[in-house]
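Worked example (supplementary).
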Amino acid sequence: MAKSTMKELEKVKHFIYSCRKCGVCRYKMTGKLPYVCPVKQASPGFESFSSRGKIILAQALLEGQIEPSAGLASAAYSCTMCGNCMTQCGATDPDTNSPLVDNPAIVEALRADLLREHPEYVPEAYHRALAATRQFGNPWGMPRSARGKWAKGLKIKDAQKEQADVLLFAGCTMSLNPELTPRIKKAVAVLQAAGADLGILGAAEPCCGSVQQRIGARELAAEMIANNVKLLNSLGCKTIVTLCAGCCNMFRKEYAPAEEKLAPKVYHLVEYLARLIKENKLTFTREQNITLAYHDPCHLGRHLEVFDPPRAILKALPGITLVERIATRENTICCGAGGGMRLFDGGIFAQDMGLEAVKAARDVGAQALVSACPFCETNLSAASQIGDSPLPVYDIIDLVSDALGIESK
Amino acid sequence: MTQNHSKDLLKALCDIVGASYITDDPVTRFTYTQDASLFGGTQSALVVRPGSTEEVSRIAALANRHRVPIVTRGGGATIYGSPRGDAERTVLLDMTRMDQVIEVNTAGMTVTAQAGIIINKLVLACREKGVYMWAPFAPLHMVSLGGWISGAAGAAGLWTDIVSITVVLADGTIVQTGGGPGTNIHQPVFFNRNLGGPDFAGIFIGDGGSFGIKTQATIRTTRQPSLVRAGIFAFDELEPALEMVRLHVERRTVQRYDPVLVFGAGAMKNFVGDTDAVAPFTVQAMMQGHDAAELDAKLAIIHSIAEQCGARRDPMLDAMAEAMGTPTGEDSEMDWMAIFNSFGIAAWLPFTLPRQSFPPVYKKLISWRNERLKEAEKLGLRLRTTWEFFTSSDPSTITGEIDAFFADVENPQATAFARTLMADFQKYAHSLGSIDVYNQGFMADLNASCWSPGFKRLFDAVKTVLDPNGIINPGLWAGSYLREGGE
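After joint prediction of all chains, the assembly is encoded as:
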């Protein structure tokens, strides 16, 4: 690849050259942080699996010292893009106080350049997700019609036909996995119980573009963003509530630079619920005697700094004891599903990362894990089934709806 | 290495460490060609991540038989570069898989760990058991124990605390230095390295990793101090600030537990901004202790010494000192690397000098640096800040740095200037008698160029006996960096 074709890496050049290659992102450890990089931990641990190694490679590619290859793609795609390396680096721009090295942005740019210029090196699983997006409108290869099935029989506004104040955005992962769809119904029930004027898009709900953006398919993601903004703005809703941390992060951060701005305000369900609880719009009647650890999804926690609302919700639920894992909030170690890692190398690293996350919960006496992202929950659930005593993995909406007695109604 | 040779070696190494922990992938190998320095990392044909002393021993024996060079790497945190290596032949050992704490011995007040462990992991393991391992604070999260023992003279201050080192020699022999099982086969515990024979630990400390491959070390601990207090004092001249250091270090032999640090104006501006509190020299005394009475006594002594030296007090500095008086623990620790990395491209300019002749040399070094910074300005390179600092780790020695940081990280000229500045500074400082602590890359070469004939003969003799085929970290101390002009 000629140097001039690294368009995306050129855009993040300042981040690349701001890295001093000290290795803190590879090795930092504190009493509240057992390690920084879950990929380095789950893999054989060579330098190329660490953030420093990836930045060295990005710089070398920019300077024409190395050529694109399958090995380079492997380094680029073996990353959860969780951003813990950026948090732990801690170096900030003295003028703006913003992070000096945005490691996930570098990895994403590297992926984008490889995908555009040398797609032959990008692992096949990512191509499949992109082809599925083009064909079915979602990365998981499920027919468009399957997307609205969960809402069959529910009394809820079709946001395209009737105006609603709040659009519940279920997201691909939640709405296309039959094991997860009950959670959408619970969210509907809880929000309706709080008096929300709620609408959905059902089968017409688009993919937010997060998975495609993380894979590096920037043109496709940009196209999706433009179409989605038009659609979502046309609905006239004031608020979008997402169930998926990835969708929320995508709407808030990646849609911001788009030419046409997204008019509705976007919240993740936990933010919205926390506000409803504060406004006394939800009354919890059922006690659940359980000790839980909350897993901060990277997109919601580290990337959007939403740490307190989910904890406020859990503390408001009768009978729930919240314990914190050693690495929590901004130090949380990724569940393993971030950055498309479940598609990398058959998902073996993702599984190992999930096992570590579950173990960390067990270590602090948690009887279950709770999160607020279908990616995290899927990976953590899969990992929690390995071994003799599975650890239940909940979405926060499971607990809220139980506390409201909704399921039993 | 022919292709067949490479394949045979690869297979044999796979048998030792397992296929997952060895790679000849060019992309992975490339990531090891850089480290934290501006001087460069290591070229290699294979990268291996061994997991135990036994594996290292088998690798060394194999490499020795085939005359294959080995380069060891810890955290990759060097500031002067690594052995260059050879992309066709070198086997690079990434030692950081060997990161286990073997034992925190609270009865014997020692901690034993594998050499690839990053220092803060070791510090935390000690803290968990209520004991304290002293470690220089800035690079805690990036330097390995083995790297520290090898790459820094006196193991960067750990010297007196090192009880024993386990080393794999070039032929695969595993040796343990003295004061325990190494010098008395009937004694299972390492407790005092000087006993039972000559202190062989010393030859492996600061050897740059040339004499053998460190795989394990035992370090002495003390009881974890629970309190910290500080006193900060301003001086207009170097000499009285230095006098304060002298009066402090002459009182005690192990000064690093209660360090007295002298900061120059450039460094202080980074703490307090460009305010009246910035004096030409600021002395910061950090006292650790186990109870308030002990600390009160220590602080009273410091204040008395400061007064005797004519120190000025400043309300802002007093407030800083007060803020530092928190219980010890990581919550009170500054993230030094985040601070330094924020400054931009670092030209680290360290020196180590005899205290007795320090002031005139220090002034020469400062004025040399300032002249070079004027050159940078003429070239249009933006200086972000400077960082002047020195301290005394014993009554005879002053060690410190007068670093400069450049803002234009994307400008290759800035990087090149910083690298040349570092190399030229060391050549100048060495010509004035500085013998710096880093025994890595460029600095090892420079140090070796200043050796007396007798010292060189001794070094060569030890190297020849321990590594007759010269397979371990070849090229180190041999002038390759100097031949390249230090760049």
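Two points are worth noting when inspecting this output. The two ends of chain A are 61 Å apart (CA to CA). Chain A touches chain B at residues 13-14, 17-18, 20-24, 26-31, 44-48, 52-53, 56-57, 60, 65-66, 69, 71-72, 74-75, 89-94, 100 (CB under 8 Å).
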